[in-house]
Structures are given as C-alpha cells and as structure tokens.
Amino acid sequence: MPSDESSPSAAELLRERYARRLPSSLGELIGPSHGTVQLPLHVAWSGLTRFDLDRPRLRMSMYRTVLAEGQRDDLVTLLNRDLLVSQWPVLRTLISRAIRDVWESAFPELTAAHSATAA
Predict the structure, then answer these.
(1) Cα(97)–Cα(78) distance, rounded to whole angstroms?
(2) pLDDT of residue 39
(3) Virtual torsion, Cα 36, 93, 21, 45, nearest 10 deg
(4) What's the pLDDT tens digit per position in 24-62?
(5) Whole-angstrom Cα distance, residue 36 to residue 55?
(6) N or C: which end of the chain has fewer CB within 10 A?
(7) What pLDDT, on a 0 to 100 scale, did the predictor assign at position 10?
(8) What is the DSSP letter of 74?
(9) What's the whole-model pTM score?
C-alpha cells in the first residue's frame, strides 16, 4: 500500500490542534490573577483540580494543565495575560515543544519575555 507523502506528521497535527485553540491576542486572557481556581473536569480530568494562584508552584501547575488540556474558552477565562507573560520564561520549559512553538509563534511578546530574562 503506497504511503501518502502529503499526510501531515503527528507533530504537525498536534501543533494544528493547539493553534486552533489560541485566542486572537494575549489581551483576551482575562482569567484571575489571584485566589483559588477550580478547573472543570474536561481540563483537569486527572489529579489536582483546585489551584491557589497565590502559590507559585500551584499557579505554574495550573497554567501547564490549562495550556495542554484547555479549549479556547478555557484559555481565555482561566489564564491571565500578565501572569502568563511573567511566568513564560519558566513555564515554557515545563510544557511540550508543540505548545511552546505554537504560543511563541502566535505571540512574539512571549519570546521577548523569555529573551529579556535570558539576557
């Protein structure tokens, strides 16, 4: 059976899946910046579902989960633009390459935040 050379790779399909979920701008991310957040089961279907944003490790864990599992509406309502940008230099090392590439390609300000802390 001949292979279809025009078929996208698994990595391309994954990137496309994450890209479809993106907000049109980081300004759309209006999630809370402090307090406790209860993630819906379709986002946090295993493990911890309640996160205290005032605790850096829990906040980082929540952002990692939402970036990986959240749909567009989840990203917009659960993530906060300022927190995402400030956490990005570390957060980018904790998420998959596909998620990182999609977000940094769409939002150059994330790459700028990473470059500023690396300098």
Answers:
(1) 21
(2) 97
(3) -50
(4) 999 999 999 999 999 999 999 888 999 999 999 999 999
(5) 10
(6) N
(7) 83
(8) H
(9) 0.86
Predicted pLDDT at 8: 80
Under 8 Å between Cβ of 85 and 109: yes
Distance CA 106, CA 39 (A): 25
What does the pLDDT read at residue 7? 83
Alpha carbon 19 to its chain's center: 11
Contacts of residues 108-115 at CB distance under 8 Å and 24 or more positions apart, as own/partner, are: 109/26, 109/85, 110/26, 110/84, 110/85, 113/85, 113/86, 113/88, 113/89, 114/88, 114/89
In angstroms, rounded to a whole number, what is the distance separating the alpha carbons of residues 29 and 7? Answer: 33
Q: How crowded is the C-beta side of 55, counted as CA atoms within 13 Å?
A: 9
Q: Is the pLDDT of residue 119 over 80?
A: no
**How many angstroms separate the CA atoms of 60 and 73, rounded?**
19
Q: Are 119 and 68 in contact (CB under 8 A)?
A: no
Within 13 Å of residue 18, how many CA atoms lie on the same side as its CB? Answer: 21
